Amino acid sequence: MERQPNTVYRARREALAAKTKDAVILFAPTESEGPNAIYGFRQEDDFYYLTGLTEPGAGLLISAAGGKHGYVEVLFLPGRNVSQEKWTGPKLTSDSADAKERTGFDAVMPLDAMRNELARVLPTPRAVVYTDTDEKSASAGPVEWLRRANAFPNYVGFPDVKQLIHQQRAFKDKGEIELVRKATDASVAGHLAVMRAMKPGLSEQEISALFQYEFLRRGCERPAYAPIVGSGFNGTVLHYSQNSGKIQDGDLVVMDVAGEYSMYASDITRTLPANGKFTARQREIYEIVLGAQQAAIDAFKSGVSNLRRGIANSLHEIAANYINSHGKDLHGQSLGQYFIHGLSHHVGLSVHDPAGGADDVLRPGMIFTIEPGIYLPEEKLGVRIEDVFLVGEDGSLINLSGALPRTVADVEKAMAEGRK
Ligand code: GLY
Ligand code: MN
Ligand code: MN
User: Fold this and answer.
1) Which of 101, 104, 202, 248 has its CA 20 to 30 A from that of 333?
2) Residue 136 has pLDDT above 60, yes or no
3) What does the alpha-carbon distance between residue 387 and residue 399 come to, in Å, rounded to a whole number?
4) DSSP assignments along 21-42, one per residue
5) In whole angstroms, what is the distance from residue 275 CA to residue 418 CA?
6) Strand partners, 257
7) By the 8 A CB rule, do 345 and 307 touch?
8) CA pair distance 46, 271, nearest whole angstrom
9) 134: pLDDT strictly greater than 60
């Protein structure tokens, strides 16, 4: 996996500390999964954002510059466990001589030191401890210990630090954009391979396997979410991921599949005619979905457009209005009722990345999807088109998955190339 320079993670920790003034930020040790989890342990997003570390079982303490010790940061790692290493391989531990150098932390200590270190840096008399778990669900060691021991009667509380981190995460830096680009490029390659290979008689699972082969061989470590390959009626089921059907001649196939590259997601959907040619009705619905996506793209204004529903400058409303004013169902009704999900979400460490801001307005550095869809179970016909976009520094909208055919003509052409 690729990792950004230590200085990038350090700058994020300092920026976070600056927002919390006279406080301590505490991350309880991250959970670890057993060796049999299919893709193995995956680091929690916020912890990864602040550290770039994939080790399980690590904790974190940051004390803002306003505290009595000035800026303090400590990474807590499990100690070396020789017998465990036989099962899961060598790990970075608090005993590793180069732990500070490798992680870029001022101090690396064993997990056992967490309580003492917290007690040492806790500013008095008004201690605010920001934690990674909200107060209600905080059964995690240090928070529970603090509360039970009543060791610090003057503490003000344990606010959740996630909201502050999510404000930072909403704006991607250059290194993050590069990783989302790589996730996207590998996923686009998967979609192109599938466009060439698609034909009636294949199983949805074979298509899912081909996607994964293509993006894993390009350096992705796992799919960014459960791959969705739904043919015919299955294409109208939003979170269909059984992928157990056989693709029939005449089906449309909705494929919402993308990989994760060095922890960063992509999110792309294409809808293909199984036999390489859209029927007139499939084409009609497809072009309405495409038109809705294009209407949202054309309306986009950095600093103005937002991801909310039902308010001014909402991209969702633009796409929904387009769908509702084009085409009809079999009963002569408008199609708006068949667009049943949100138009967009942020993408980053998570495929559904936190929006971070109070206003949901899209600004330079943000990465998000535009993904209208129409689902007509009665006609066994579903269409979704999803691309992932970056708001450039100059406020322009950049389609990161723009290399992938999107129009009827381009999709049919790409599919025909596989049939030569
Ligand atoms: N693949 C999940 C989504 O499109 O939101
Ligand atoms: Mn999406
Ligand atoms: Mn998707």
Assistant:
1) 248
2) no
3) 7
4) -SEEEEEPPPP---TTSTT---
5) 11
6) none
7) yes
8) 33
9) no
Closest CA to 47 of 107, 168, 132: 132
Strand-pairing partners, residue 261, are 264
First vs last Cα of the chain: how many Å apart?
37
Atom of ligand 1 nearest to the CA of 341: 5
Q: What is the mean pLDDT of the chain?
A: 91
Residue range 66-111, pLDDT digits in tens? 666 789 999 999 999 999 889 888 889 999 999 999 999 999 999 8
| Positive or negative torsion for Cα 209, 215, 221, 226 | negative
Q: What's the confidence (pLDDT) of residue 146?
A: 63
- By mean pLDDT, which of 156-165, 300-309, 311-320, 342-351 is the weakest? 156-165
Residue for token digits 């060691």? 141
Between CA 307 and CA 195 the distance in angstroms is 30
- Per-residue tokens: 125: 């008399």
Cα–Cα dist 290/381, whole Å: 15
User: Ligand 1: which of 268, 270, 352 to mutate, most ligand atoms within 8 Å of CB?
Assistant: 352
DSSP single-letter state for residue 378: G
Can you name the residues that pair with 303 across neighbouring β-strands?
none
Q: Side chain identity at 86, as an amino acid letter? A: K
Spatial CB neighbours of 78, under 8 Å, sequence gap ≥ 6: 29, 57, 58, 91, 93, 94, 110, 111
Q: What is the DSSP letter of 247?
A: P
What residues flank ion ligand 3 with Cβ within 5 A? Answer: 256, 267, 386
| Mutual angle of helices 162-169 and 6-20, in 10-degree steps | 130
Closest ligand 1 atom to 384 CA:
4
Query: CB under 8 Å to 204, separation ≥6 — which residues?
Result: 229, 230, 231, 234, 242, 243, 244, 245, 246, 247, 253
Tokens of 161: 């630090």
Query: Is there an atom of ligand 1 within 6 Å of 351 CB?
Result: yes
Which residues are paired to 228 by β-bridges?
A: 256
Q: Which domains, ranges and CATH numbers included, belong to the chain?
A: 6-169 (3.40.350.10), 174-417 (3.90.230.10)
The whole-angstrom distance between residue 253's C-alpha and the CA centroid of its chain comes to 24
- pTM of structure: 0.95
